[in-house]
Specification:
With 748 residues, the chain is α+β, with helices and mostly antiparallel strands. The strands form six sheets. The chain has a seven-stranded antiparallel beta sheet with strand order 4-3-2-1-7-6-5, covered by helices on one side. The protein is globular. This is Phosphoinositide phospholipase C. Its cofactor is Ca(2+). It is found in: Cytoplasm; Endoplasmic reticulum; Membrane; Nucleus.
Length: 748
């Protein structure tokens, strides 16, 4: 259709406007216009799209489930904080056409290439941005504007020489292939070419044996190196002639270095690589706090989008605060605050509908509603017991998917619990369980700042309103407690009364929840006991009640003593969530990471404050040469024409003795291809717990540096050698093709 596809753009149950949507001829831009006025309302680039969700996978579309079938509905999710776009097509066929088409367009961007191998789609995108008069040609003035947009402060004479060299037609403008030539010259990687020539005898190609030498000497690939070299040539060499001769050109060499095999992140650790048959308490588990909130803790919005985003991010422990609602319908919100409310039924439905396949799942089984390993639900029922059980129905006697009730052996494992939903909560069995409130355990006032956190937690366990006295509460609890108790099989919530008490009276199937301040006090006073406790029982840590802005505490200090469920506010970007994403980006992103052996031993001597207590080899040295950067993004909300002055900071997060940070000098006015060539060195006493965070900032002489990009990973996942680091934004999304080029060495 010339004018585009007519679809409904939906913002709420009552706001459904018909709009024409059309993919432009450049295959990079989509615009939509009003059916009534014909005015183009907005446009977006394919490069802005993170993913496309099918069906009722948004709060708005779920509210319209009875009116429109899922086959006609889909959601476009953008990078960053831009709101999702919910659409309803005229037919299932039209919906599939758009869904599959968009997915095809965004798929090639997983590991964008630079220099001569940069994708033509990416080049075309830059051309469209710079071609202001839309005549399909670019004059030198437009090229100068493009350089500013690309974060390049280039000498005008040099820019003109590149322009004239690419202008083969001598027309004074660049068109099509001429612009591609200009872009290739602009993105020439001298540091990579120099490395290539160090191993190439003729300076034009790497023979199979020369490539093997490079892989062994620099990349430290010591197993099946010849086979790997052949695979890399077949996969990344663009020239058929070179492939036939088992050789790698300079273009193919760059393509390899920019690929997953050339990434700092060990590709073998991207997939499921750890033993999943250990007891549940032997794993760190990706966990969120008040998952339903997407803003602050007092007046913020509650949304099923919070659950969708957390699940897509690999979270395996969600929180649900359930309260009595109108007409017998339980509602989820942050009790005794002004946050908005969502029906509990929608939350349960979302958990069954969100498609988030795990790469580690056997072929043919992907596409299950949940990642295969168990999902833990931390449920707090503020007077909503009967309503909640009514919604849960028969699922409480199964794993949530029709499978039998979960096993209750002390050594129950993630492997045994695949496709199960475990409900964490109170369970009848001891008197104190029946008398405690429905929320987290009431904390010790003496352990919290001015008792404010304790007061916040007390407010969370209050229920009811005027006329709701102790006797009424007890009567209601007696009638509902058994039904809720039956939902809890493995993660029975118990109050923490000390390590000795827990060792004497608790069971491996039980779990205690601690506020961050209480946990810090235990870390200071009894670090080794805390590690031993976490070797046989689950511990959940949650944020201080004073964090009403949804800020986060550092998860690292909690992981250092083996706490498994360290709940963070996923909606708040920052270092803390970078660490969380960094730790759980491995092992197929399944949300479970196996703890080091010395943290799984109930008799361990390890104490994070004394790194010498760790059994095993001595400290190791991590040496990082920061070589260069490529196409770094501009700082958000910067002035037109502003060019960044980038520096790189490397941070080590781990036990106290390993905490460190070092940074390079800043490079003036070059965000396009800065060269640092600086070496940073760190000593790690407990590398098994270390996370390495690379941060790029825009240096500012008069105020705080501005964030540009970051990448965080566990030390165990680092591949030595010459590696690219593909940067992420503040909220953890990719920002192609921005990257760093580094050389990594690890020694004892």
């Amino acid at each position: 259709m010339q004018q585009g596809t007519l679809m409904r753009k939906v913002k709420s149950k009552s706001w459904k406007k018909q709009r024409y949507f059309k993919l432009q001829d450049d295959c990079m831009t989509i615009w939509y216009q009003s059916k009534r006025t014909g005015k183009i309302e907005s446009a977006f680039s394919i490069s802005d799209v993170e993913t496309v969700r099918e069906g009722h996978q948004s709060e708005v579309l779920q509210s319209l489930a009875e009116e429109f079938p899922p086959e006609r509905c889909f959601t476009i999710v953008f990078y960053g904080r831009r709101g999702n776009l919910d659409l309803i097509a005229g037919s299932a066929e039209e919906a599939q056409c758009w869904i599959q088409g968009l997915r095809q367009l965004i798929e090639p961007r997983s590991f964008p290439l630079t220099s001569a191998l940069v994708s033509r789609t990416w080049i075309r995108d830059w051309f469209q941005k710079a071609d202001k008069n839309k005549d399909g040609r670019m004059n030198f003035k437009e090229v100068q504007r493009l350089l500013k947009m690309m974060n390049v402060d280039m000498n005008e004479d040099h820019a003109l020489r590149l322009f004239q060299a690419a202008d083969k037609s001598e027309s004074g403008t660049l068109e099509g292939e001429e612009f591609v030539l200009f872009y290739k010259a602009l993105t020439q990687r001298e540091e990579v070419l120099s490395l290539f020539q160090d191993f190439s005898e003729d300076g034009k190609k790497l023979t199979l044996l020369e490539l093997v030498d490079f892989l062994r000497q620099e990349q430290l690939e010591d197993e099946g190196t010849e086979e790997l070299a052949m695979e890399l040539i077949d996969k990344y060499e663009p020239s058929e002639t070179a492939r036939a001769r088992h050789a790698l050109s300079a273009d193919g060499f760059l393509m390899y270095l920019c690929s997953p095999e050339g990434s700092i992140f060990n590709p073998r650790h991207r997939v499921l690589w750890q033993d999943m048959s250990q007891p549940l308490c032997h794993y760190f588990i990706s966990s969120s706090h008040n998952t339903y909130l997407i803003e602050d803790q007092i007046r913020g919005q509650s949304s099923i989008e919070g659950y969708i985003r957390a699940l897509k991010r690999g979270c395996r422990c969600l929180e649900v605060d359930c309260w009595d609602g109108p007409n017998g319908e339980p509602m989820v919100y942050h009790g005794h605050t002004f946050t908005s409310k969502i029906p509990f039924r929608e939350v349960v439905s979302t958990l069954g509908k969100v498609v988030s396949p795990c790469p580690a799942e056997p072929e043919g089984q992907q596409g299950r509603a949940l990642l295969p390993y168990p999902l833990l639900g931390a449920a707090r029922a503020g007077g909503a017991g009967s309503q909640q059980c009514g919604v849960l129905g028969d699922s409480r006697s199964h794993g949530g998917d029709g499978h039998p009730r979960v096993p209750t052996s002390p050594s129950t494992t993630p492997q045994e619990l695949k496709h199960k939903i475990l409900l964490k909560g109170k369970k009848i069995g001891r008197l104190e369980d029946m008398l405690d409130g429905p929320g987290d355990e009431a904390p010790d006032v003496s352990d919290d700042d001015n008792g404010a956190e304790a007061e916040e937690e007390r407010r969370r366990v209050k229920v009811g309103g005027p006329g709701w006295g102790p006797s009424a509460w007890q009567k209601d609890k007696e009638s509902l407690a058994q039904a809720l108790s039956d939902c809890v099989v493995y993660c029975k919530n118990v109050s923490f009364r000390g390590f000795q008490e827990a060792r004497s009276h608790s069971r491996p199937s039980e779990i205690s929840s601690l506020a961050e301040a209480k946990a810090r006090k235990l870390i200071r006073d009894a670090g080794n006991e805390f590690v031993r406790h976490n070797a046989w029982q689950l511990t959940r840590i949650y944020p201080s009640g004073m964090r009403t802005d949804s800020s986060n505490y550092s998860p690292q200090e909690m992981w250092n003593v083996g706490c498994q469920i360290v709940a963070l506010n996923f909606q708040t970007a920052g270092t803390e969530m970078d660490l969380c994403d960094g730790l759980f980006s491995q092992n197929g992103r399944c949300g479970y990471v196996l703890k080091p052996p010395f943290m799984r031993d109930e008799e361990t001597l390890f104490n994070p404050s004394d790194p010498g207590s760790r059994e095993g080899p001595g400290p190791i040295t991590l040496t990082i040469q920061v070589i260069s950067g490529q196409q770094l993004p501009k700082v958000a909300n910067s002035k037109d024409g502003a060019i960044i002055d980038p520096l790189v900071r490397v941070e080590i997060h781990g036990v106290p003795a390993d905490q460190a940070r070092q940074e390079t000098k800043y490079i003036e006015n070059n965000g396009f291809n800065p060269r640092w060539d600086e070496t940073l060195q760190f000593q790690l006493h407990v590398p098994e717990l270390a996370l390495v965070r690379f941060v790029v900032e825009d240096y500012d002489k008069t105020s705080r540096n501005d964030f540009v990009g970051q990448f965080t990973l566990a030390f165990a996942n680092i591949k030595p050698g010459y590696r690219h680091i593909h940067l992420l934004s503040k909220d953890g999304t990719s920002i192609p093709p921005s990257s760093l080029f580094v050389h990594i060495r690890i020694s004892e």
